[in-house]
Structures are given as structure tokens and as C-alpha cells.
Amino acid sequence: MKQQSYAQGTSAVPLIGETLGENLQKIAERFGDREALVVISQGYRATYAQLWEQITTVAKALLAYGVKKGDRVGIWSANRYEWVLMQFAVPRVGGILVSINPGYKQSGLKYALEQSEVDMLVTAQSFRQTDYIEMLNQIRPHCSYPRETVILGRNWDRFLAAASKISDEQLAEREASLSFDDPVNIQYTSGTTGYPKGATLTHHNILNNGFFIGERMYFSENDRVCIPVPFYHCFGMVLANMACVTHGSCMVIPGEVFEPELVMKTVQEEKCTALYGVPTMFIAELEHPNFSQYNFSTLRTGIMAGSLCPRDTMEKVVKLMNMKEVTICYGMTETSPVSTQTTPEDPFEKRVGSVGKVHPHVEIKIIDPQTGRILPRGEKGELCTRGYSVMLGYWNNEKETLNAIDRNGWMHTGDIAVMDDEGYVNIVGRIKDIIIRGGENISPKEVEDFIRKHEGVVDIQVVGVPSYKYGEEVMAWVILRESYEDIDADALLRYCKGRIATFKTPKYWKFVQEFPMTVTGKIRKVEMREISAKELGLDHLNGIHTED
Asked: What pLDDT band is residue 521 in, cutting at 50, 70 and 90?
């Protein structure tokens, strides 16, 4: 009888039963003199002792501003040192950090603030060409959240000054009331039901996931990790920051957003030992005209995740960037996020052709999505995850929580996977209709619902098409009203600009009279993807195709 597609991550290393604050304090005591955080674009450097002191100041300021246990505190900013301070200060006072995508426009911002009922918002003044303050002012008449706003660079110092009103004893009293099972973070993730859902994660979730991610890469206090991936996403917040702080490693942040040459310069000048990125980022670095001018000799490891990795990219990263111990991770926000990961010892073929084996203290299985039966190894089915890493649920959304997590505690990922005889997992498609563009999860329904409001649009269907650079790009098939047949792609792009996030705006448009359908009237998105890829000349890109 063939072995079942089930695996559990046995480990002699126990789970950490501490809050984020308790764990970081121990790390700061052990590695106080070692550098903890470097942000090149801000000229910022701090040792672990200094970082702990600054986090303590922010935690006291939050108490002075009236943040209670369970209050939601939003952070809306690209990568800055203040983001890291908030990441650890908010949990120390029992608050729940709401990670808000810096690319959100009005509709996304308003939704996140209202859905999570943000009590306090810490925000940058702008991001790229977007004026955050103006956007907040525009939605305020229609949105009762947040009750308090702190603007970085404008009243941050005044906010910090309020810390003097709070004693060490008051902060200690609040921390003593906390449990590692308390929620500490809401991260919004797209799904098939339209607007994003707020995956609610605990101290236990992200502390342990970050720790075991770092363990698989053999992190120690001697590692310096270059982090160009965004903090608001679990890639930056957990895979990077949490993996570092649980091992006394140094977080090295090149800038607010990804710039390939700045990343390469940072690796060289800061003597980084690890580098993170989605495949798109590594491709941009490898293809940069000045690539050969930089020295990558200090690199040994890192993570490539977020979308499928092209084989030739991995080969170049290993050979040309000296990342001989680079790892591949698979996960989802709802599972904190990593469930499987390759190791430096895995054969190269497994590191390119799989997403590794199950993580410690985690269970995975591959099932027939119709019957729930565990499939034999080698057969394709839905990947499910169970264990400490599974979220508490979707914030204020019991219905979707019950749809995602079954009565036995299994998180149904919606991803189609296959497990080989050695326990390595390969992701081959998706049940859930999500587009993954450069690591960003995009709900087709959310984009469809927005563009369908245009008076000239009768109907729209959004699909993902292959992209060498981003893994997938957004494409819209549109049926226009008869009296609006002169509308073109440029007109719809103007309609989207400034109203939905740029990464969600379709790159490709196809105007049709009808959509491909099954005999039962179901729209054949798989066929639409195939047609689109062929017409665009992208069908040669392997590993991108998804299944309905």
C-alpha cells in the first residue's frame, strides 16, 4: 500500500512558550552589544540593548495615549525603523498591530480601518506619489476610525515624549497580564470573497514560526540579514524580522522600498550573510547593469519565496551571489506563514523543484478536496496545515473562518500540491482563485467588483496570466455596454488610477462579447488563462499555470 500524503514535523527543539516581549528581553540581555537593526535610508543603527530601550519608550507612549489590551493599532508605512519599534511595542501593551499595505488607495485604506476598527493609527506622511495625509482627510467624513493619529516625522517626537508619564511599574503590570495566546497582529490577505480578510495571529504563532524559519537557515548572532521585502507582509514581518530577533541576528534594511542597486550595495557594505526576496527581486539584481561591480562573498543563505522560482534564477543566485544555502519557503498568512521549507542540505533538485518538507511542530496532509480523503503520495490534491501556526481566525468574520479551518483544526490552503515519497512538497496550482503578483495576493473578485461599477462595463472577469518578472500579472476580460463601445484600455486605466492599488490594476485588457462557459453556466477561467497566455505569447512560461 502506498504511503499517505501526510507528514508531521518532529523536533527535539520545543516550542517557545513566551510573549514577544519576554523573548526579546532575553535576547537583548544576551546580545545587548550586538547590532540589532540598521536602516540605511534613515541613517539609523541600534544595538539590541538600544532597540529594547527604544521599544520600551514606544510601549510607554502607547499606554500614555490610552491604548488598552485588545485595542487595534494600525501601522501604515513602508519599511522604516519606527515600523520595527511598533511591531514589538504594541504587543508589549496588549495591543493588536494592524499591518496596512502602503500601496492601499482610498477604498482599501477605509476598509482596513473600519473592518479592524483601528483605535490608533501610526502613519507615514506619504508613499511614492501618494499623499497619505490628504487621503486620510478625504475619508475622515465617511470613516469614524482611527480615533488617534500619529504622523511619522511630524508628531512622532511628541508621541514619544508622552512616555515620561508612564512608570516602569505601570508597563510591567500591563505585560504581566498578557498571555502568549493573545492576538498581536492582523494581516489582511486576499481571497475569493472580494475584500481582504484579516488573519489574526498570536504571540505564539509568529514567535515560533520566525524562530524555526531561522533555525532552518542556522541563524545566529553572527548573521546580518538584508531585508528588502515589505514589513506589512508576513515575508518581512515574520520570515525576516522574527527570524532575526529570535536568534540575535541583525536586521539590515536598505530602504523604504526595493531598489536593486541599493540592495546590492547594502549587502556589500554591511557584509550581509543572508538576503531575502521574491524571485522578481533576485531577477532585478542579477540583470542590473552594475551587478558585476558588487561583492557578494559574505552571503551564504537567504529566502526566496512569494511565488514560483524559475530554475535558472535559483542557479544564478547560488552561483553568482554565493547563496549556496538559500532556502525556499511555502506558506500563507493564515499559517503565520511558513508550513514547509527547504534546508541547506537538500539536494539542489529538491530546492528548485519543491517547497521543502514540513516545518517542526506542524502537520500537513494532501487531500481529495471533494471527499476529504488523504491521498497517496504522488497524487495531486489540496494541501492542509494544522498546528501551533494556524491563525486564531479572520477578524470579525466567523463565517469565513469556519470555511477555512475545519472542525479538526486543519487550515485548508486552497493550494493544489503533491508530496513525493521522501516528504517533499511541490505546489502545482490553486483551488482558490487568487492571483499572486510578485508576492502580492490579489483577489480577482475585488478587482472585478470595483471595475464593474464603471457605467460602461456590463461584466468583467479577472484572471492571472504568466509573467517572467512577477510570476503573474492581472488581466481583465471586459464586456462593454453597446453605447460605450468606444471605451478602451486607457479609459479603464484612468478609472482605476488612484482608486485601487496599482498592483491590483490590470496590465492587460481583452474586450469580448461573452466569456467561455461550461454547459452548466460556470465561467471557464482556466480556459481564459490559457487563451490569454497564448495570445500574449506567454504560454511558454512554465510553472505559472493554475487550476480551477
From this structure: low
The string of DSSP letters for 283-307 reads HHHHTSTTGGGS--TT--EEEE-SS
DSSP strands (E only) in 342-380: 357-358, 362-367
3-state SS, residue 409: coil
Predicted local confidence at residue 308, as pLDDT:
67
**Of residues 266, 222, 225, the one with CA closest to residue 248:** 222
Q: pLDDT at residue 404 above 50?
A: yes
> Packing angle between helix 20-30 and helix 81-92, nearest 10 degrees?
120
Residue type, 490: D
Using N-to-C axis directions, what is the helix angle for 168-176 and 81-92, rounded to 10°? 70
Measure the CA–CA gap between 251 and 272, rounded to whole angstroms.
10
Residue 448's nearest CA partner among 486, 492, 416 is 492
For 327-343, write each residue's pLDDT tens digit: 999 999 999 999 999 99
Q: Characterize the bridge pairing of strands 72-76 and 120-123.
A: parallel
Q: How many residues does the chain have?
A: 548
Find, among 104, 78, 75, the residue nearest to 504 by Cα.
104
**Using one digit for the tens of pLDDT, what is the confidence trace for 347-384?**
999 988 899 999 999 999 999 988 999 999 999 899 99
3-state helix, strand, coil in the chain (%, to 5): 35, 25, 40
Residue with cell string 531575502: 276
As a whole number, the mean pLDDT across the chain is 93
Backbone angles phi, psi at 189, to 5 degrees: -130, 140
3-state secondary structure of 76: strand
Check: CB of residue 54 under 8 Å from CB of residue 46.
yes
Whether the pLDDT of residue 403 is over 50: the answer is yes
Which residue in 225, 544, 279, 320 sits closest to 438, CA to CA? 279
Domain boundaries of the chain, sorted by first residue: 19-179, 436-535
Sheet holding 457-467, edge to edge: 457-467, 471-480, 508-511
Residue 99 in contact with residue 187, Cβ under 8 Å? yes
pLDDT at position 522, please? 58
Query: d(Cα 148, Cα 146) in Å, to the nearest integer?
Result: 5
Q: Which residue has the cell 550595495?
A: 265
Asked if the model's pLDDT at residue 192 lies above 60, the reply is no
- Which stretches of 392-443 are DSSP H helices? 398-404
Pick the CATH number of 436-535 from 3.40.1280.10, 3.40.50.300, 3.30.300.30, 3.40.50.150: 3.30.300.30
Per DSSP, the residues of 139-187 read HGGG----SEEEETTTTHHHHHHGGGGS-HHHHHHHHHT--TTSEEEEE
Which three three-digit cell numbers place residue 325?
Answer: 544555502
Given the DSSP bridges, would you call strands 457-467 and 471-480 parallel, antiparallel or unpaired? antiparallel
- The pTM score is 0.85
Query: H or E element: which one contains 269?
Result: helix 260-269
**Could you tell me the fold of the domain covering 19-179?**
Rossmann fold (3.40.50)
Q: 194 pLDDT band (50/70/90 cuts)?
A: low
* Tens digit of each residue's pLDDT (9 = 90 or more) over 156-190: 999 999 999 999 999 999 999 999 999 999 999 86
